[in-house]
Amino acid sequence: MAVSTEAQHGLTDHTHGVGGTPVSSRADHFASFDVDAFEVPGGREEIWRFTPMKRLKNLHNGAPATGSATVEVKAAAGITVETVRRGDARLGVAGTPSDRIAAQAWSSFTDGTLLTVGKNEEVTEPTLVTVTGAGEGEVAYGHLQIRSELFSKAVVVVDHRGSGAYADNVEFVVGDGAHLTVISVQDWADDAVHVSSHHASLGRDATFRHTVITLGGDVVRLTPTVTYTGKGGDAELNGLYFADHGQHLEHRTFIDHKVSNCRSNVVYKGALQGEGAHTVWIGDVLIRAAAEGTETYELNRNLVLTDGARADSVPNLEIETGEIVSAGHASATGRFDDEQLFYLQARGIPEDQARRLVVRGFFHEILLKITVPEVRERLEAAIEAELEAVGA
């Protein structure tokens, strides 16, 4: 088993130049819609140092689109769906690309998909967006925006599947008093490469619930970012990932507290098994000087099931004001809890069943937050299949 020096067994300190790799302020990170404003990354840069650049199908180096992904939407009543061009003035308002692949995706897509939850609409049924890759050996770019207007409420599931390389930007524009729940599923074929930047903008008293489920693909790199434009915003970012032989699954969350009296909570949990399985979680929280009354916490836990797997976990917390409610973070990576296994086996439960119970319990907190029964059942079945593959 290989575990990063930034995430040994137990809790780790954040890296502010003491006891870890120094990181620059997130307030200073460059962002642009212009792909040519970014240098081609070589892999030594801080934001790319964990990513296997040679496996990105040249998405970082100007790979042209050779195909297109298919986007199908089953919209619930109260939600409108549009196909829009890149020049649509509504696009790009939730955030600006902060790396070259995100800028490449912005520059390369032609048609985007825009979902709008109307003002005061309370949509009870989930909306399903299915994104299917362009096919093995093909490269595609895309753009999706979900707008939740004033005092609306909705649940949207974005399901990724199929083959090929795919890079996109996904925007969530959550209006004043709105409540938007999003579940993003990455269930790609074994050959797929997916690099995606999620940009969420929260208005006054807006509520945003964002859950990422990453299971399939050769390389998957997701970058969810939340910014607040009005007081009282409330964001929860949850993640569940399961990497097996040779997979690289990378998640980089960034919460930018720009205004006062907002809340954020991040919980990501992952399991790994098989030679070369690699997961990365980077959690950045920036509390700016104007963000008094902030309440924030982030947590990452990883469960390593076999030798040959590696988990990197780096929480970073940057605070520019002392007038906050609370702020904290924690990270832990380790194997099965021997005491839990002993307790279960002492009560007559065979070891393989005991291990499965421990893994299910490990993920239970995230599973409870998935409010769409079909998605939760699918995820539980996928976890069971992963455990059967390793013989747990």
From TrEMBL:
<protein>
    <submittedName>
        <fullName>Iron-regulated ABC transporter permease protein SufD</fullName>
    </submittedName>
</protein>
<feature type="region of interest" description="Disordered">
    <location>
        <begin position="1"/>
        <end position="23"/>
    </location>
</feature>
<feature type="domain" description="SUF system FeS cluster assembly SufBD core">
    <location>
        <begin position="135"/>
        <end position="362"/>
    </location>
</feature>
<dbReference type="GO" id="GO:0016226">
    <property type="term" value="P:iron-sulfur cluster assembly"/>
</dbReference>
<dbReference type="InterPro" id="IPR055346">
    <property type="entry name" value="Fe-S_cluster_assembly_SufBD"/>
</dbReference>
<dbReference type="InterPro" id="IPR011542">
    <property type="entry name" value="SUF_FeS_clus_asmbl_SufD"/>
</dbReference>
<dbReference type="Pfam" id="PF01458">
    <property type="entry name" value="SUFBD_core"/>
</dbReference>
<dbReference type="InterPro" id="IPR037284">
    <property type="entry name" value="SUF_FeS_clus_asmbl_SufBD_sf"/>
</dbReference>
<comment type="similarity">
    <text>Belongs to the iron-sulfur cluster assembly SufBD family.</text>
</comment>
<dbReference type="InterPro" id="IPR000825">
    <property type="entry name" value="SUF_FeS_clus_asmbl_SufBD_core"/>
</dbReference>
